[in-house]
Amino acid sequence: MEQKVVEKQRPVFSANNFLASVAQVATPQLTKAIKLITTPDELQEAVVEITSQSVIAVDCEGIDLSRAGKLCVIQVATEEQVFVIDVCAFPKDNSDLRRALQSGLQFLEDSSILKIMFDPRGDSDALYHQIGITLNTVFDVQIAEVLFVKTCEPLGYKYRFRPNLTTCLEKRLGRHAITTGRANAAYFMKSGGHQMWDIRPLPENMLSYAAQDVLGCLGVASILARGFLNSLSSNSVAIISDRLWRASQTATTTFRDSYTAVKQSKALANLPNI
Questions:
Q1: Superfamily in which the 18-269 domain is placed by CATH
Q2: Helices 204-231 and 141-152 meet at what angle, rounded to 10?
Q3: If we measure between CA atoms, which residue out of 168, 146, 130, 157 comes closest to residue 271?
Q4: CA 217, CA 212: separation in Å to the nearest integer?
Q5: What's the pTM?
Q6: Burial of 129 (0-12, 13-18, 19+ CB in 10 A)
Q7: How many CB atoms lie within 10 A of CB 149?
Q8: Distance from CA of residue 131 to its chain's centroid?
Q9: Which of the residues 93, 114, 153, 195 has an alpha carbon 20 to 30 A from that of 270?
Q10: What are the pLDDT digits (tens) for 72-87?
């Protein structure tokens, strides 16, 4: 008698359950194995690992990251490994390689995989207009940080402007989160601009910077999610979850679809001005 293969039930993420899923993510070490992806075969191997996860961290790097700029790198972190996808290895003028890239990145459209990101507005704009990928199901760490300070640290520092990732890493993970490699890469980008992301082969400090951004996002997100759940009443958690969920999803469409959506995104989370 044949046995039926039971497929693993994928979660359906919503405002009601995404915080609990993020809270279960272990705060990762900021030094993980980095796998650089430069071929379709390597991408497909990475996708097998990535799509086995329900929660991942994603970030993009490039020059003037937007529809008008150049998307150079997409980094993805699981709790076990970091994949750095070299978009420049899949050039626009090679239709076969570009199709392979678009096919491999379908997990960014998968609503059963929660993508932890930091201010995904520019990333979403570049992904959609340059590769044809519609990003969705996102947890925006930047919005979560602002909401956490407003609701769980009422006597603490209030942000006048949106915090950057470095601020969040230092505050939630400690100054050790800003490693020498990340600091060196940040220095090079200040001197050479984001053009540094177009250098091939990618310098080691840039790879380290890319990896630590997504690993840091995983860590900060899990700390904030646990903080919300442990500090607030169930009614307050429901309200914050709804605001954070709606604001995070709106952030993916803010630049991609219409700049007028900026007001809507800020109103949902009651964020400081950009």
A1: Ribonuclease H-like superfamily/Ribonuclease H (3.30.420.10)
A2: 40
A3: 146
A4: 8
A5: 0.88
A6: middle
A7: 17
A8: 17
A9: 114
A10: 999 999 988 999 999 9
